[in-house]
Amino acid sequence: MQRIGVFVCWCGSNIAGTVDVQAVSDALAHEPGVVHSANYQYMCSQAGQNLIKEAIEEHKLTGIVVCSCSPRMHEATFRKTAAAAGLNPYMVEIANIREQCSWVHKDMATGTEKAIILGKAAVAKVNLNAPLTPGESPVTKRALVIGGGIAGIQTALDIADAGFPVDIVETKPTIGGKMAQLDKTFPTLDCAACILTPKMVDVAQNENIRIFSYSEVTDIKGFVGNFDVTIKKRARYVKEDICTGCGLCTEKCPMKNVPNEFNLGMDNRRAIYIPFAQAVPKVATIDPEHCNMLKNGKCGVCAKVCAAGAIDYKQQDEYISEKYGAIVAATGFNPISMDKFDEYAYSQSKDVITSLEFERLTNAAGPSSGHLVCPSDGRHPHTIVFVQCVGSRCASCSEKGKEYCSKICCMYTAKHAMLTRDKYPDTEVYVFYIDVRTPGKNFDEFYRRAAEEYGVKYIKGMVGKVSPENGKLHVQASDLLADKQLHIEADLVVLAAAIEPDKSARPLATMLTASMDTNDFFTEAHPKLRPVESPTAGVFLSGACQGPKDIPETVSQAGAAAAKVIGLLAKDKLTGNPCVANSNELMCNGCSSCERVCPYGAITYVDKEFRMPDRTTKVRRVASVNEAVCQGCGACTVACPSGAMDLKGFATKQIIAEVDAICK
Amino acid sequence: MKKELEAIQSEVIRRSGVNPKKCMRCGKCSGTCPAYDQMEYHPHQFVYMVESGDIEPLLKSDSLYQCLTCFACVDRCPRGVEPAKLVEAVRLQVVRRQGNNHLKTDSIPALIDEDMPQQALVSALRKYSK
Amino acid sequence: MQVNGEYKPLIVAFCCNWCSYAGADLAGNNRLAYPENVKIIKVPCSCRVNPMFILRAFQRGADGVIICGCHPGDCHYTSGNYYTRRRMSLLFSMLNFLGIEKERTRVEWVSAAEGAKFAATMNEFTEAVAALGENKRLEDLRCKR
Q1: Same domain, yes or no, for B91 and B110?
Q2: DSSP 8-state code for residue A552
Q3: How far does C43 lie from chain A, in Å, by closest CA?
Q4: For residue B36, what is the domain's CATH number?
Q5: First to last CA, chain A
Q6: Angle at which helices A409-423 and A355-362 pack, to 10 degrees?
Q7: What's the N-to-C CA distance of chain B in angstroms?
Q8: Domain of C34, in residue numbers
């Protein structure tokens, strides 16, 4: 039997004005278990709290009911008070007689009556309360960053700087991501390689960072502080530690016609290749789909020319298991496919290109060595048409485009247009737009400069049709401000394709039990207040995998995610929420209902040995709750058909006791 | 003809001292214009047409004479484009040609009104005639 | 429920901790009156509400039961209110079959910002339950005093 103390607060006249506090404390004094009942002007004041502490000691109280304001206001206060007097803080219950009684009722009689009932319900609950202790779990002081673009690079560098080891897993043979493919970056027009490659070198040289390139995460188990991750290191048929990256093999390989994905297929590479000169790690990789030696066993040129002897045709995929305390998703984005936008003739003409392809065409390390040419015949284009919002803000065509704004296109199109006019003043540059959206530091000024100083022709309206005619592109578009249809003979058409999350994000989210929106962007724990955390504890978000982002935003988010990771890894132990689910193993029949409804993957099944009444033992499959992962929603308690699952702090018996107390 | 129009366009821009490229098409000039209802081409269209070289319809339009030159648009333009000055420059291009006076001396007596200040007549003659 | 020989509807409201309980607090902060017949029980999430609790309330003489949770898509636990929606539509149709009018039961989404909606919902619900009269169908006579 509990020894309960009841403390009724007047809250000045806030409660006492509509509730007869003396009557409430008198009525509750006779409830089962109540050994002490008092009222005071301000329970939350120092004097009020002392009153509670003294009563706990004097009456040897085991539970407390405070009839006062909302628990959202002062539950934490009174729990601390109880703890200070040596009582378990979870033995405190609040009856909300201010917000949900005295403030909404005007009549003293009814207010008092309701306050007594609410107090009785709280007493009934405390009678069944049990002391709770939050669980503790250790933290593995190592972080995993999935994705090696600028987001992953920045996050890894920041975590490593704080002294924690970090591993980067990247599916491509090199880190660098999309930013490595870019030419210049808005709004300052720094060259992307000049600011990115030093960071890549920093990553390679940082003692706290390991890079798993050409690798992918295949399995994630565990929970915050204790993730068990399996990484598949795909065979690149080159020994990473021996290869010097001299590049001789990539010059001698006879397979010359492999489309170069780094240049988006606009030129060719060999079957053995290094994606670009500043690749990190600078190691060759053999493409097994095109290598004659691997396919037919004939060739072996690369092995012959390699002075270091790094080629290994028999290399196998390698699986690495590692433990991590925190995981950062930085899987990035891709432009969507233009296949379904036939109106722009992307598949019909080589001179219709995407903005990323344009980026490679203007890059000095690109397929045309930085000369802006028409990909079809290499001539210099005199009229260029940029089309914005291709597939973005496309609500009715979900199978073609995306409903959201891709955010970065307005700025990079302004950049492309400006750079073109700067380098080739003889070109006519048109930009067709629905809206120009340039909110960002120095962004709008940048766009206006393109229009005003560089004479880029911004036309409000969309291109409706592009048709290749006599080696040129006939562009038919609307000029909404002049209310006219325009016909332009263009040499090059550049499409600002919408961006979408990388395809690897969805399976990764499943492994992480992290939530995603309908567009496959990772969901943040709170859109405003917790923007870099996933609702799943221990999982953090960096860069465009959370939503379209430009480089400055990505880098700041990457730093924020790193700060959160550092905050987690700096702890030796994690203290959980003690109000978690727990399963009565004797009642559990192992049906998996709870496992299926748990949004956090906190429930697993274990085989346990039980002693049977006839003294034999039997192994049964029973549910086991991971207290570090459980958030205490209680969905499992209702799903459980045998009533084995219960929620600490909100136990079935406690809630029923409250119902009974109210309905008496 | 095309060459001639281009010449007129650059002359209009030079004389007015206006850079129509600065316009970001907010429409505030038309929103503020007191003669909006009388005009065929409204101030924002005027700026855009000069910018895109679509000047021929402007030369023929009565809008040139509907503009009150009140300069409300100049005062309120967030980008400092000064549409009224463009209108004025185009108007000059028209009225300075032979036989293109919009207000002829002969028609003045019919316009005279007791209440009309003399200054209005003088300025109208200056605005609409060579 | 009869109180001193007079019918007074008794409403049990289950409110989730994150949205609706805060919404009820907001109604209080704004002094938006609703009938004292409504008694609130806090649960972590609307999906913690076991159908058993509702049956128990009706057995013990409650005249109406309302469950308030976060709006769909806003659940603090991502998907809890979707479970509630499914479970309760099933339970309520069964209760309706048993003769508990469907006006006596309700699921309502109330966010932490919707104090006015909370008060309006409670006013309306209490009125609807009051119009139906006492709940006798599921009442456990052994519990009668």
Answers
A1: no
A2: H
A3: 7
A4: 1.10.1060.10
A5: 21
A6: 30
A7: 23
A8: 2-143
Helix, strand or coil, per DSSP, at residue A251: helix
Rg value, chain A, Cα: 33
Same domain for B19 and B70, yes or no, is: yes
User: Are residues B77 and B112 located together in one domain of the fold?
Assistant: no
Tokens 């929603």 belong to A633
Cβ contacts of A207 within 8 Å, gap of 6 or more: none
- Judge whether A639 and A594 are in contact, CB under 8 Å: yes
Q: What is the C-alpha separation between A438 and B54, in angstroms, rounded?
A: 28
Chains in contact with B via at least 3 Cβ–Cβ pairs below 8 Å: A
Q: What's chain C's length in residues?
A: 145
Q: Give me the CATH number covering residue C20.
A: 3.40.50
Q: Residue A103: CB partners within 8 Å, gap ≥ 6?
A: A14, A18, C28, C29, C31
- Contact of B45 with chain A, judged by CB distance below 8 Å, is answered with yes
What tokens were used for A663? 């309905």
C107 contacts chain A (CB < 8 A): no
Collapsing DSSP to helix, strand or coil, A404 comes out as: coil
Residue C62 contacts A where some CB pair is shorter than 8 Å: yes
pLDDT digits (tens, 9 = 90+) for C15-55: 999 999 999 999 999 999 999 999 999 999 999 999 999 99
pLDDT tens-digit series, residues A184-237: 999 999 999 999 999 999 999 999 999 999 999 999 988 889 999 999 999 999
Q: What residue numbers bound the domain in which B119 lies?
A: 103-130
How far apart (Å, rounded) are the C-alpha atoms in residues B109 and B107?
A: 6
Going by their DSSP bridges, the two strands A4-9 and A63-68 should be labelled as parallel
Work out whether the CA dihedral C32, C36, C37, C39 comes out positive or negative.
positive
Pairing state between β A215-223 and A226-233: antiparallel
CA distance A353 to B77: 38
Domains, chain A, ordered by start = 4-127 (3.40.50), 136-229+317-332+506-571 (3.50.50.60), 235-316 (3.30.70), 335-500 (3.50.50.60), 581-648 (3.30.70.3270)
Q: What single string gives the DSSP state of each residue in B20-86?
A: GGG-----HHHHH-TTGGG-SS-HHHHHHHHHTT--HHHHH-THHHH-----HHHHH-TT---HHHH
Q: Check: CB of residue A243 under 8 Å from CB of residue A308.
A: yes
Which B residues 68-127 touch A at CB under 8 Å?
none
Does residue B38 sit in the same domain as residue B74? yes
Model ipTM over 0.90? yes
CA distance A445 to chain B (A): 11
**Do B85 and B108 share a domain, yes or no?**
no
**In order along chain C (145 residues), what is the average pLDDT of each group of 10 residues?**
80 94 93 94 96 94 94 85 94 92 94 92 95 86 67
Q: From the candidates B13, B18, B19, B21, which should be mutated to test the interface with A, based on the most A CB atoms within 10 A?
A: B21
User: Alpha-carbon distance A611 to A631, whole Å?
Assistant: 32
Q: How far is CA C28 from CA A107, B119, C112, C113, C116, in A?
A: 15, 70, 12, 12, 10
Instruction: State pTM to two decimals.
Output: 0.78
Q: What total of structural domains would you count in chain C?
A: 1
Assess whether the previous peptide bond of A187 is cis (omega < 30° from 0).
Answer: yes
- In whole angstroms, give the CA distance from residue A324 to residue A228: 7
Question: Pairing state of beta strands A272-273 and A209-212?
Answer: unpaired
Dump pLDDT digits (tens) for A426-442. 999 999 999 999 999 99
Co-location of B78 and B20 in the same domain: yes
Specify the number of domains making up chain B.
Answer: 2
User: Where do we find the tokens 């880029």?
Assistant: A456
Hey, what amino acid is at A377?
A: D
Verify whether the Cβ–Cβ distance A481 to B24 is below 8 Å.
no
- From residue A53, alpha-carbon distances to A31, A616, B46 in Å are 21, 51, 80
C-alpha A89: how far from chain center: 34
Subunit partners of chain C (3 or more CB pairs within 8 A): A
